[in-house]
Amino acid sequence: MNRKALHPENIRLTVIVACYNEELMVEMFYRTVVRYVKKYDYRFIFIDDGSKDETLSILQKLSNEDPLVAYISLSRNFGQPNALKAGYDFATDADCVISMDADLQHPPDKIDLLVAKWQDGFDIVNTVRAVQMDGALNRRIFAKLFYRFVNIISTTQILADGPDYRLVDRKVVSALAEFKESTPYLKEIIPWMGFNCTAVPVNIESRSYGESKYSFLKLISLSLRGITSFSVSPLRLSSFVGVGLSFMSFLYGIYAIYVHLFTDQTVQGWTSIIASVLFISGIQMLMLGIIGEYLGKTFLASKRRPAYLVKEIRDVSFSRSVEHKPELRTTRPVAS
Question: Parallel, antiparallel, or unpaired for β 96-101 and 166-169?
Fold first, then answer.
């Protein structure tokens, strides 16, 4: 397919949007973004990630109003990465897929630029923050440290300051459908694939209403998922630290025996001994925690549970030439 020769009305573009308690924003998001995608053969897929508010009711209303709005209602909250994975799994018939947040922080006026880059031949078009991310200082520091640490220990380099606002080609979407991980981490999975990619700078806007659904504890949990998803370097590091501490303890033991047998001095200092014991014990607990994290992931993977479960789906086609009534379904294969 010659992408460059495609006219906008012939490009089948799907916008996938993960929503969790976004009743204040989701309709505004749709009304805003639809103005930027009307030139394409577009379709929206909203994924309701187990919202407790009226998000699903609003999506049902939008789907009834616009035959090009589909939605997937998950049985509970599975988390944003799993919800986005559900969106990709149900968008394999698109020429290209754009993922966006429902809070309008991702500027829709960049959609044409993302599509243009795709037409230039790029299979993955990422976005990066053009300016320093907003938010609390501790979040900014934590994010910088996380990205730096992950890119040091992992062979897969993830994009620092890269939000989940990206365009991917249909071949990337088809490849994503082959991943059966119960805890997918898309920021590492997508660059790991190795398709031709580029990045464009964007200004991330402030939320108009509501607040971020990511607490600091959720960010830590997501970070642990990212660190342990594509690298065993923490396990190797724990081995090196264990060997180093054992060697230091061995040398200190030889020194203590020498002082006791060949000098009149005695090994003194309960404070230093207790401090050493506590330090080594703390390191041991840290190493056990790292091992436990990997064992936990192995335990969850062995259960072969799906990444998400669909409670209800309203699917739509791309065709705008034929009036298409949304189809309500309650069953469809889910990711495993």
Answer: antiparallel
Taking a C-beta distance cutoff of 8 angstroms, is the pair 151, 160 a contact?
A: yes
What tens digit of pLDDT does each residue of 192-203 get?
888 899 988 888
Q: Does domain 11-213+306-329 have CATH number 3.30.70.1150?
A: no
Q: Are strands 197-202 and 166-169 parallel, antiparallel or unpaired?
A: unpaired
The single-letter DSSP state of residue 121 is T
The two three-digit tokens of residue 21, written as one number: 């308690």
Helix (H, G, I), strand (E, B) or coil at 179: coil
Taking a C-beta distance cutoff of 8 angstroms, is the pair 83, 53 a contact? no
Q: 98: how many CB neighbours lie within 10 A of its CB?
A: 26
Q: Where are the domains of the chain?
A: 11-213+306-329, 233-303
Tell me which residue has tokens 């459908």.
177
Summarize pLDDT for 33-54 with one digit per residue, the tens.
Answer: 999 999 999 999 999 999 999 9
Cα(182)–Cα(336) distance, integer angstroms: 7
Instruction: Give 198: exposed, middle or buried? Use CB within 10 Å, 0-12, 13-18, 19+.
Output: middle
